[in-house]
Amino acid sequence: MENKDLTLVELVVKNHPGAMSHITGLFARRAFNLEGILCGSIGDGTRSKIYLLVRNDDLKEQIVKQLEKLYDVLSVTLHDDFNIRIFQNLDELIKQP
Amino acid sequence: MKLNGAELTIKLLERQGIKKIIGIPGGASLPLYDALYESNIEHILSRHEQGAAFMAQGISRATGKAAVCFATSGPGATNLITAIADAKLDSIPVIAITGQVSYSLIGTDAFQEVDAYGLTIPITKHNFLVRSIKELLYVIPEAFKIAQEGRPGPVLIDIPKNIQLAEIEIDVWPEIGAPLESINNLDLDYIKEISQVINSAKKPILYIGGGIISGNATNALKEFAEKNSIPVAATLMGLGAFPAKHPLYLSMVGMHGARYTNYLMNECDVLLAFGVRFDDRATGDMTKFCPNARIVHIDIDNSEINKIKTANLSISGNIKDVLASLTKYIDENPRTDWINHLNKTKEEHPFILPPEEDILHPINIIRYIASIVSEDTIIATDVGQHQMWVAQAYPFNKDRLLLTSGGLGTMGFGLPSAIGAAMAYPEKTVICFSGDGSILMNIQELATLADLKLNVKTIILNNKHLGLVRQQQELFYRKHYIASKFITNPDFATISNGFGVKGIDLSKEENPMAVLKDELLKPGPALINIPIKEDENVYPMVPPGKSNIEMIGGENNGK
Questions:
Q1: What is the mean pLDDT of chain B?
Q2: Is the Cβ–Cβ distance between A34 and A9 less than 8 Å?
Q3: CB-nearest partner of A61 from B126, B301, B306
Q4: Above 0.90 for ipTM, yes or no?
Q5: Closest C-alpha among B254, B262, B273 to residue B406
């Protein structure tokens, strides 16, 4: 699904306790907006996949370049075509009684 | 071989070629110090951890190689932070190793526990919290690789005490951590395209920064600039990357740059931004910076491209390789018209020197000192007016001779970084220009200097003020002087003598210049207090937020 205002950044990162701090710290320090995060370990657990929902604006280039510089970040991919409903319906994660 | 984590750490540092470590021990780093007892690495005991990290910076800035400092957990680690942040902003490879409370105590608010890893995330190039002894084999060499590879920067390694004490059997040592040689896979068509832009430019200017120095590209820059006769303007961090005495040299650009430099940059049609990051102190109002120029931006850090200023042409890569490649394709061109115009602008809007008879004018003092000491003397500065006067008036003809806190602007930088540089080059004289404000921020390191008896000469240009603050209050805050004048003024010569470093006060000397000269040419440490006019200002000055051509002062007729 196309979403013009938002874009999805897909990261593969080294899975250790500090990796997420490096990523969220970067967004705070550089005044980048972060609209949503999804994260979980992949494969044998040495790596994680993180999806960051960010605004599709002029800062996008900087966001990608700064993320690419992080030592724990192994790859950065941008997606304009993604299912935003996942972020909009996080409440569905918890099973209703 | 069976080793504990501390011994392993020290062995790995020895293998990296580290000869000196500066630090202060404490509970959580005592095993590391116990391992140092058996090592041939020399430990230098500073008097504050910030001093330790700035000494490591001094070694690193003077040599270009990574240097190491140690601190214990908690306050030891937090005291390092300013100097680590300083290294980050100026891209200096420093490795800070901190002791941490044992892993089982992490998160319990144990004695001297602080989250050194969390605190240093935004101010390091990368950092590690070591979670097992085995990780040390990877982390220590890797830290040296990270610190020195690409755009250099500081790396912190936090090692919990239990890991320092854990044991491991070592059969095979890891490779020594070193930066990968940059692979030269430049796109030749693109290089030719840039060369074409340069060849067809009428008024090109090189705007160069610290990247030329950290990229070891000073010779490549000179060949490039000379072949096509391109004038060179430097940022504060770029001073020395191009010889000050060279006819193509335009001196420093920006807030306290010379008038002719800022005027000529405003006119240029092609701006060759090489190893620079368009810092606001260099560019002034960005929207009005080099308004007529096509921008060619070369930097090793891809994230600097288009960060502040969108480039028309750019390469993210090794500046030395790019310069060498471009030099092949640019024309030999004397650029007579542009150079004549440059010389005329320089004549019309020169950097104004104070009258010669005003011998205690800071610029005259700086030039006098430059005339006495040898050309390879290392100059460290603190931060403030004296720093800007040095940047304006001291002729730096080679790289790595100016150690100054450019990005972070840290008062207290000067003395410990000068001591660090003198550790790296004990045969050299190192001069630290400081102010009466800055020197007090790390004056305790005079004790370390007294221990080491290195040839560090501290010159305090003493105006009894936080001079640059006072200047801004005078110019931009309706002379509302607040918190910029010191109520009392310490006797710095006496203080220095008290530390065991010879102190001299030129206000008490009948022939101050002769005493100054005599002292600078003697071996050993000294501190020389020089009273200067309290309300001397640094000119020209671009008011904050204004464009670089809207300078105040430093005009031919007048102040």
A1: 97
A2: no
A3: B306
A4: yes
A5: B254
